[in-house]
Fold this protein.
Amino acid sequence: MEPESGGDDDGCMATPRTTKKRKIKEQLPAASSSPEDKYKPYFKLEYKRSYPDNSSKEEFPIYVEGINEKIGNKNPLYLSKFFKNVKGIVEKRRLNANKIMVVFKQAVAANDFLSHSCLKENNLKAYIPAASVERTGTIRFVDKESSNAELYEKLMADAEIIAVRRFTKKVGQEIVPLTTVSVTFVGTSLPQYVFLDKWRYRVYTYVPPLMQCFKCMKFRHNAKICRNDDVCSRCSGAHSYKECSSDILKCCNCGGDHLAISKFCPIKIEQRKRHESNYLTRMYSTVVSNKDFPALTKAKTDKSVTFALKTKSTPVKKIENSHESPITVPVSTVQTPTTNSNTLTYDYLVKDDIFLQKIIKTLVTLANSNKTNTTTHIKDILIENLTK
Ligand SMILES: [Zn+2]
Ligand SMILES: [Zn+2]
Ligand SMILES: [Zn+2]
């Protein structure tokens, strides 16, 4: 894992929130525990994902995978037999070679399905996608001494915390802790701050690293589901890097003289940017299409600027299996200001460095533009930058 880079606290003068101390009586590892134990991700005991009973969402997706075999490429009619006794399914969808998605109209039906006998009978496992019920953020400049379990005990937030993971790096054989820690919360919006020993830490959106396949070296899938041939990450040859005998470095993605996994590869840089932007778009659109979370309002001022992100699609997006085709993201448009019920205050959006960069880029483009900046023109540029 790598820490996120850059971005300091903006010094925003938000009023401290009421923080609830969670009741925690869970076992902490011994103080003398090894770095492996100390920095091992900490998960709240006995936590199980579920949809809230009173949720007003319109769709409740569940992912289904085979325990012993990949079910994504099976005949839909064959798969339908598995679910013939399950009530409340409104849609079934193939996601990739490994998994399918089953959508329910009601939370209780979706939750019940997780323990349905058809799963065991057919060697299937089912789970709620994390993005439907959880959000992960990062906090920075956290002392390196505290273990994840200790941090979990001390952290206070408006939302329930279910996981704490310290970012670490490996130096030789040693695990070295970093000062960035990821925190996972229940809900579909991130709290703005958490408190640690009464110190306020800003919560940044966590974007998972870009996936790169170690078999074919392409992006956005892993070797587990890869159906391509081996490509050497050193010389681009048709063999695994483990069998490479070439002295020449040639990236199979861009042809440059670096490893295909190099973070300096221009193709990888471009892919990472796209991945971050797509991920954030997906997160925001899930939030605004989820009615469980009412519009945030800025208590201290009447002049809060509001944005609404309108989405055309359902909260959970199709995951593309093809290597070449882009991840499907909702088409978003931005309107300002508005009183739409799907409203977020700018507080929510300005937390995000990438979002801000896109706004800044838009302003620069407009300032340098010779065109008359009509509303339509401004909107076009903004949308173009936000969806790129
Ligand atoms: Zn691959
Ligand atoms: Zn090679
Ligand atoms: Zn390259």
DSSP finds ten helices and 14 strands in the chain.
